[in-house]
Amino acid sequence: MKPVKLTMKNFGPYENVTIDFERLAQTSLFLISGKTGTGKTTIFDGMTFALYGETTGGVRLGKEMRSNFAEPSTKTAVTFEFTHQEHVYQVSREPEQVLNKRVGEGTTVRPAKVSLTVFDLQGKELKQLTKSKEVQSFVEELLHLNAQQFTQIVLLPQGDFRKFLNADSNEKEAVLRKLFNTALYRQIAEQLKEKKKNYAKELATEEQEIKLLFRQIKWDKQFAEREETVTSVSDKLDLLKEQITKTTVAQKNQLAVIQKQQAVLATNQQALTKGEQLVALYEEQRMAENKLTQLLAEEELRAEERAQVKELTWLKAQEKKILRYEETIVQSREISQRLTLVKEKSATLESQIEEQSQVENQLLSQQMEMAEARQEAEELARLEPLLVESSNLKAQASQLTAEVEKQEAELRVITTELKQLSQKIKEHEDVLNTKDQLLTASEEQRSKEAVIKELLTESQEILKVTERVATEGEQLVHLEAKSVTAEAVVTEANQQYLLEKSQLARLQIARLSLDLVPGTPCLVCGSKEHPAPAQDQWSLAEIKASELALEEAEVAWTKSREAVISLEEGLKHQRAKLGESQEVVMTKEKALSDKLQLSSFQENDLMSVLKNSQWLEVVNYLQKERTALEEESQKTQGSLAQLEVVKREQKKLQQTQDQLLTQEVTSKEQLISRQSELLKVTTTLTTLVKQVPDKWRELTSLAPLIEERQGAVTAWELKVKTVTDQLTELKQEAIIQATNQVNYQGELDQVTALNQELVTELTKTIEESPYDYQVADLIPSLANLTKLTALEAGLASYQQALSLVKHEISGIKAKIAEEVLPDLAELKGQVQALMSELAAAEKIGLLLEQEIAYNQELLTTLSQKQKALEKEWQILSELSQLSEVANGDGPYNKMSLERYVLQAYFEEILRVANQRLIQLTNNRYSFEIKVEGGSYKKQTGLEINVYDDNVGATRSVNTLSGGESFIAALSLSLSLAEVVQQQAGGIQIEAMFIDEGFGSLDEDALEMAIDALELVEGKGRMIGIISHVRELKQRIPQQLQVIGTGAGTSQIQYHTELE
């Protein structure tokens, strides 16, 4: 990554500045100089903000970088252009900011925006991204650096220059992992560890399942007792197989018993079935005879039903004549009713015709009056336009009068406002005259604040190290106390071990003495004669218990010794760590004391606290000074901000004054115009009024009178037409009703004749039959015909039932023959007893069958699981070994695979760094990786020591002085960039920016640092330095000078010649 251009608009002190890095590319090494507070570091902030949306170190948000002098109409934006791997990249970013609304007045909060465009070297656009997350991911993937790592490798801001040098192994690992893409090794190790954990959990679950399955086995009593004495899984499985075999034999024997009992039961069930069938036949015979008796008792009722069927059959034969007779009666009644209605309607029509004729005569008498109304409506219609125009002119005159009065009032308001504005403009001019004084005070406050900030940072570092020294001292005392306690435990454990060892020897000797054979040498003394062997009697169990106690004592003694050794290692490490921290405190105290002596803070209170090394009070004193200065600065900045507000208000007031003057002229012109229009309208109105008769001049419109006259004429004409039409319709309807009356009378005469004919025929038929009916009674008698079908069906059903019962009785008697009724209770008792015996036998057989199937299934499952578990334990063992190697969890390996790979990369970085460090320190210092043993090894491996050739010893980099730390950090940063670029697939870092740090170097170290940077420059890399050191200005011809204008803004100047 190599910068090309950086454009900053309303960003920090830069209103609209573009830095062209290609103008400084002649020697690649250039200097950025300028007074404190002019915005040198803001250049780095601009690059970091464009790439990552935050400033160097993440101290300030992007929206906080918006310039105080920025107008609401101008945006804050940063555009950064750089080259990388044969492509050109342009990133433009705007923070969240308050700007004028695009439509209407007032301001609104505009959200942050970003865009990244990719070009080839010929300027052709290849790709563009506009979403924040997409740009962030793209930049980090392109540069292989996040914002924090970018400031550690490419931009080295104030206070962060030595962070990578002093970082612990975990912090260095986070940076190197991203640069060398070693996260894969960590992921592999974590996946192996997780896989081992999950696999072990699965095996534990499977073992638990096997135990649960064994508990589910149904053991017979004798096998259950034997199972309690068996421990191995295979022996238990053999015992289960033996039980299944025995149970299978018992189940076969039980099946033979069941088959015999089933045969006896079948014979008894057949006898019971035959007896039940015979009892059922006797019961059927009894029920059939009872039913026959009931049917014969109904014979008298059935005779009556037969007579009723005969009478209804005769009546059905006469049904058509009776219905025709009934129809003539109904027709005669209906025709008589219609005839009566027609006569009544004819009388009503005659009355209506007479009434309508009278109404028609009355309407015709109003014909002359309607003609006069029509003539008056026509006259009113002619005058209506004149009256409407007159009314409009009156309204127009009233409106113009109101407008004239309103215009005069507005003119008076504008005159008053102009006087007030003139007074406000004069007051604002007086306030703006104080701006130069506030700018001078702000510049002085920024300079003083930078000095306090530097002193406070170094004081806080010393305080932090001092507190660490106190903590490490307490930890050392704690470790020493633990060491004393641990040594006492070792002594006690050793004594217990010797006692247990002596006791075991005594028991073994006493036991062996019982087995001594005359003539064989004693195992203790070697004598072949044994006149008085020991008489103590010790059992094997007692000797075994003594051996176990000895083993436990030996383990306790070994563990306590290992604990003491571990504590001694910890004490050694803690003492070394405490010594290094104390040396760092002394070095930093001396450096800061020298700075304080040269600074402007020489108050007696501060110097007395400094002499007593009371660094907490020094920090508190400087913090109070900084707080007071910040409050004073905030007041000054607030006053300057208020001046900007006043300035904007002044501008708005002048614009308002110009607008009001314009409005005053316009208002006067409009007033004259309205007065002229009012006079013209008044004259026209007078002329029109004279043409309208006096009785209608006060009306605003004649339309209601016209509508009234025309409505009366129209209503009269409509009534005449309606009455005439109704009279015609009534006369036609009277003719129709007269015709209907004649027709209905003829129909009535015909129906009456037919009725008399039917009465004569029905009377003759009744006289010839055996039944006593009147003609009028025949019609209601027809309702009884609905019973005929049911009566006929009932008689047929009765005859059929009677025949069936007789036939059924004959059949039953034939089946019974000579059979005698059996004793069913005795037969049922025998069958029930046999069924109970069979059920008990079958239950035993079923239980045996279920036990065999259940245990056989468990046997198959357990056998399969045991074989699978043996294979899985072997896999877990191999997986555990692999996980321990990758994660550094083994007994002999305490370094993870990723840390091992990173250490190899880091060794190469230190090798390259030593080439510069040895040269820059005249062969005095060289880097070494700090080696830690035991459990510390897992968390270390990337920390640095320096070998000091002057004293022939190795010490921590934290003990280097300020100038030495700068040289070491510079060597390490440069070598880190080179090694990263050398690795295949690594990133290309073609630029480095260093913010301060050269002021802590002596003359020789400064010379060596410049030589080192020039050496890097010779390799084609761009190096930018921010510094106040005059020697740098004299050595570096390419310079970018940041110059403050005194109004809160800064400008850029390029210089290519030495001072």
From TrEMBL:
Named from the GO MF annotations, one term is:
ATP hydrolysis activity
Q: Which UniProt keywords apply?
A: Coiled coil
Coiled-coil segments: 189-216, 354-438
Residues forming the Rad50/SbcC-type AAA domain are: 5-217
Give the Gene3D superfamilies listed for this entry.
P-loop containing nucleotide triphosphate hydrolases (3.40.50.300)
Q: How does it assemble?
A: Heterodimer of SbcC and SbcD.
Query: Which family does the UniProt entry place this protein in?
Result: Belongs to the SMC family. SbcC subfamily.
**Listed name of the protein:** Nuclease SbcCD subunit C
